[in-house]
Specification:
445 residues; transmembrane helix; transmembrane; Growth Hormone, Chain: A; single chain; mainly alpha
């Protein structure tokens, strides 16, 4: 049993932090991920309007990550310097403006340009929120609560898919725009509004939280400071970025993210392909409802898996097993002989990807702190998110070159299996609960 679980002040403080910060940050990430991936639904009608091939669509999807990757580390260092409240608000307003502007593109070139700008605008949001949560969450409870935040990823697909499909189908002609343009406009504006809310709602550090009692503020500040003072944690941003463990974690994250974006960007296309393979035709809204099912399952299992990892204190296998599940199932899905079995196996893929995500982000703060954590977490996210460019572009290119999406999904499976193998190399030992509550965590020793 951890110290927090036996300390009434600690329990009260964490309960307030969890309810105030996690749902709101999850809402922000919901909108973030939806604006990043809704191009997968726009493709169903946008490709014909703009004359996009599969390769061109894959390039447009992946170009987001070019600007994103170059600005991740500078953005996170700026958040560390200026505070989360100001910097997250700035990020949200700028990405909302660019996301809405995508409603007015009239060529593939303009689509490419705005996808790059969207990546620049969004850069630093995700690693910034993760860094921010390390200022508020003690290590022993971090995976479960980060999992509650990350549930926004599958929920944005589960709820966003039918919503996007409905807007495209039933909003066609609204404001004189095609349905996919209406979708970009409608789904971009909430980021601007929430950015304004951020400025007034977020609190930078526990010491500044007037919504906590003095005892709760003191307990939380002391607990987080004690963990930050653990010997062996890197505080220099330059040494953090040169740390081989950062590079190794970036490699592991690459495989998980490769699977995530391949599924997110191309699952609507896979479902639409059921018409040819199985003579099963669905409307755009029905396609969205079908796409939602794997991500709903992923949302539920992500929370339960993170809770189990925190309760047992085990991290390495809690990362490797779901990554391997995703790697084994995704290429198999398209060799099955009915829409039901294909979606059942893809649901297992989504479960594997979603369960791996919160456990993965337990590792970087174990050996990074301060500005080193800001730079290291951003670099890990950048290295991993090179898969955000590679996955859609290679999937589209291979699909065009071979006339089938199957070889591309075999590549996805290989990437995820390599990620699982990398996770097992993180440590040969089991992390006891006591180690995660304070002191060194042997997972990365």
């Amino acid at each position: 049993m951890t110290h927090t679980e036996t300390d009434p002040v600690g329990r009260s403080a964490l309960r307030k932090v969890a309810w105030r910060l996690v749902p709101f940050l999850g809402l922000l990430y919901f909108v973030n991920y939806l604006d990043r991936t809704n191009i997968g639904f726009a493709k169903l009608t946008m490709s014909e309007d703009l004359g996009l091939t599969e390769t061109m669509f894959g390039l447009a999807s992946g170009l987001f990550f070019i600007g994103y990757l170059f600005f991740e580390v500078p953005s996170n260092l700026a958040l560390h310097r200026f505070g989360a409240r100001r910097w997250i608000a700035r990020i949200m307003v700028t990405w909302g403006v660019v996301a809405s502007a995508m409603a007015f593109v009239d060529s593939a070139g303009w689509l490419y340009a705005l996808r790059v700008l969207l990546g620049i605008a969004e850069a630093g949001f995700f690693p910034g929120v993760l860094l921010y949560l390390t200022w508020w969450l003690p290590r022993a409870q971090r995976v479960q609560l980060i999992g509650a935040f990350l549930v926004a990823v599958p929920l944005s697909s589960a709820l966003g898919a039918p919503f996007s499909g409905a807007v495209i189908q039933y909003g066609d002609g609204l404001f004189g725009l095609e349905g996919w343009r209406v979708m970009f406009l409608v789904e971009g504006l909430p980021a601007v509004l929430l950015g304004v809310v951020c400025w007034f709602y977020l609190t930078d550090r526990p010491e500044d939280a007037r919504w906590l009692t003095a005892d709760e503020r003191g307990w939380l500040a002391r607990t987080i400071a004690a963990e930050g003072a653990t010997p062996g944690r890197e505080a220099s941003p330059w040494r953090a970025m040169a740390n081989l463990r950062v590079v190794g974690l970036g490699f592991v994250y690459f495989g998980v993210v490769y699977g995530l974006y391949a599924v997110s960007f191309f699952l609507p296309t896979v479902v639409a392909g059921f018409a040819e393979r199985f003579d099963a035709t669905y409307s755009i809204f029905e396609t969205g409802a079908i796409v939602a099912v794997p991500f709903l399952a992923g949302a539920v299992t992500m929370v339960l898996w993170g809770r189990h990892s925190d309760r047992t204190g085990e991290r390495r296998w809690h990362l490797a097993v779901p990554a391997a599940l995703g790697g084994v199932t995704i290429p198999v899905a398209l060799y099955l002989d009915s829409p039901f079995t294909v979606m059942a196996v893809i649901t297992l893929t989504a479960v594997g990807i979603c369960c791996a995500l919160p456990v993965f982000w337990h590792f970087p703060p174990l050996f990074l702190t301060g500005a080193g954590a800001a730079a290291g977490i951003a670099l890990i996210n950048s290295l991993g998110n090179t898969a955000g460019f590679a996955a859609p572009y290679l999937t589209g290119w291979i699909s065009d070159a071979t006339g089938s999406i199957r070889p591309a999904l075999w590549l996805v499976g290989i990437a995820m299996l390599l990620s699982a193998a990398g996770a097992l190399l993180l440590s040969r030992g089991r992390t006891p609960v006591a180690a995660t509550a304070g002191g060194r965590d042997p997972v990365l020793d």
